[in-house]
Structures are given as structure tokens and as C-alpha cells.
Specification:
Elements lengths: L1 E5 L3 H9 L3 E4 L1 H6 L1 H5 L5 E5 L14 H18 L5 E9 L18 H22 L2 E7 L11 H9 L16
Parallel strand pairs: 1-2, 1-3, 3-4, 4-5
Helix pairs in contact: 4-5
């Protein structure tokens, strides 16, 4: 069975290394190949790890780009992919959706964490709706603290870098408000 991974970040690249018979795409490159993919005789698994980079949230300058990369690209794929060819889908969400929206809607969101978590939750709902109508198997993984080689974003890498240097400070992007 072919496995199509949509996303260009660290996790996508690691999944590509570990999952046999896989091919990695950006959202745009997948859409450029969609006619060929839809003509495939065999079913395939779809791993969607395409979302606006959480590393760039503190410097969010274009809300349109944020929505495009977070939701519009995925919606465009869902509109164009032949759902009868999909065996199963895995959508990578974020643990940021836990407890991040309901009671905090009026809090300051200087680092765009609530925008991010609400968009992740919206992505989940979009995909759940599409795949429940099509009766396709779906797994949603709410991932957090990915750590690995060349990582400089997770809290684990930040603590490790402080431990291995003379620095005494780490930068936590959400002002320590994570749950």
C-alpha cells in the first residue's frame, strides 16, 4: 500500500524515513500530482501533516497565509482527492487543543497560541466531517513536544541547550501559560 505524506516539516521527514513505500509532498506538490494520484489502481493511506509552522507563530504577519497553510490547503486537497482511493487517513493535530480555547477566549494572545489551537481544532473538524461522510478510517494524533536531531524548538531541546552551555535563560513562546 502506498503512503502519501503531505507536509514538509521535521515530523513529515521523519515519518518518510520510517514508513515503507511512502512519498512526501508539500500541499502544493500533492495538488499538482492529484490527477495522477487519483488514477492509481490501488488504495493509499494519506498522512496530513500540513499546517502553519508553530515556529513562526510569534512573527505572524499574514493571516491569509496562516489560514491557507493551516486549513485552505487541506480543504483544497479534500475537494480534489478521489476519496474512494483512500484506505485510511492520519491527521496530525496538536495537544494545544486541550484546554486552550474554552475558558481563555478573552485572554491576550500575543504569541498566537490560541489562534493556532483553534485552527488545529477546526482542521480536525473539517477532516472528521469529510471522512465520516465518506466512511473512511481516520486517526487524529494530537502531538506535542516532538524532539529529535536538529530540533531547536521543543522545550526538551531548550532545556538541553541551557544545560550544555553558559546560558541561564530559555525563551518560552507562550509566556509559560501551557497546560
Amino acid at each position: 500500500i502506498k503512503n502519501y505524506i503531505i507536509g514538509s516539516g521535521y515530523l513529515s521527514k521523519e515519518l518518510y524515513k520510517e514508513i515503507p513505500n511512502s512519498k512526501i509532498f508539500t500541499s502544493k506538490s500533492f495538488l499538482n500530482q492529484i490527477k495522477l494520484i487519483n488514477k492509481s489502481k490501488k488504495k493509499f493511506n494519506l498522512i496530513i501533516n500540513a499546517f502553519y509552522s508553530s515556529r513562526k507563530l510569534n512573527n505572524l504577519h499574514s493571516y491569509k497565509m496562516f489560514v491557507d497553510k493551516s486549513l485552505s490547503d487541506v480543504a483544497n486537497i479534500l475537494d480534489k482527492v478521489n476519496s474512494r482511493k483512500i484506505r485510511k487517513i492520519l491527521y496530525t493535530s496538536s495537544s494545544s487543543v486541550y484546554g486552550s480555547i474554552n475558558d481563555k477566549i478573552n485572554l491576550s494572545d500575543q504569541n498566537n497560541r490560541y489562534i493556532y489551537s483553534s485552527a488545529k481544532l477546526s482542521g480536525e473538524m473539517l477532516i472528521k466531517n469529510f471522512f465520516s461522510k465518506k466512511k473512511i478510517k481516520l486517526d487524529i494524533c494530537r502531538i506535542f513536544n516532538i524532539y529529535g536531531q536538529n530540533d531547536n524548538f521543543s522545550i526538551i531541546s531548550k532545556l538541553s541547550s541551557v544545560n550544555n552551555s553558559d546560558k541561564k535563560k530559555i525563551i518560552i513562546y507562550n509566556n509559560g501559560q501551557s497546560i
